[in-house]
């Protein structure tokens, strides 16, 4: 039987389901502080683990009162006076593991989502309704925090101000320090006041180290032939097989917040005729898709060019460099799971 196509799927999410669906993705269902393994050569990872534990304990201890930003803990450390914890560092150092662990350790109500999912939530519900539904939460966890355009800057600044003023704790991960969000992507200087206002709400914890996904592992598999790719897809129940260009066109018709439901239940993704993304818009959609595939631990197999060729040298040298490198790290890890299945790490 021919494999299914992602290009034939058109997932929909009702507005009322959006908040209820804000939980860690399957890959991070079972992560906890106890199974985070700091790299012994990177002391910042142990320090980040301790900081996240302390943050989760503060969330569990009770909601601060309005206006706590200036003096909830009196003369304590500045980071302890801030309603947010911000994990900054390169890809593959376990930031998402720590974020999800903090979410699991905190009492509810609580919400967890990617930055893209959060902006979509506000767009679907409206700003006032999104604030109303989240303001009674103890914790909002935001993975892959980025500001890619001025509209997002204004929207998320207002949202975080409203939520933290209401006493909601916020934890986030990113590859960019909060006061440098948007740098190199739009006229960030015009929005420095908003960016700095948001950054002031976070205590920053740096997480250093090499990409754990590729430590001591073999090189990724070479692309398959088209015939072998089709045979692989047909042999695995629940696998999909798509022409790369057709899938890219399909992604353009879907909001990135739907990419998760697009691949829910898929056993493996097979992409025929992979080549470099033709422009930045396509490339950023592929980053979002790669993140959702990784969240769900869905293996990826390709024909055509290798995954390492997905983003051009110009793209890798631009403002979205860290996003592209993260996507490549995750896709290469997923490609190994097709050729030679390995235990799926939750980090």
UniProtKB/TrEMBL annotation:
Keyword terms, alphabetized: ATP-binding, Cell cycle, Cell division, Nucleotide-binding
GO biological process, one term: cell division
MF terms in GO: ATP binding; ATP hydrolysis activity
One Gene Ontology cellular component annotation held by this UniProt entry: cytoplasm
Pfam families: AFG1_ATPase (PF03969)
InterPro entries: ATPase_AFG1-like, P-loop_NTPase
SUPFAM superfamilies: P-loop containing nucleoside triphosphate hydrolases
Name of this protein: Cell division protein ZapE
Organism expressing this protein natively: Gandjariella thermophila
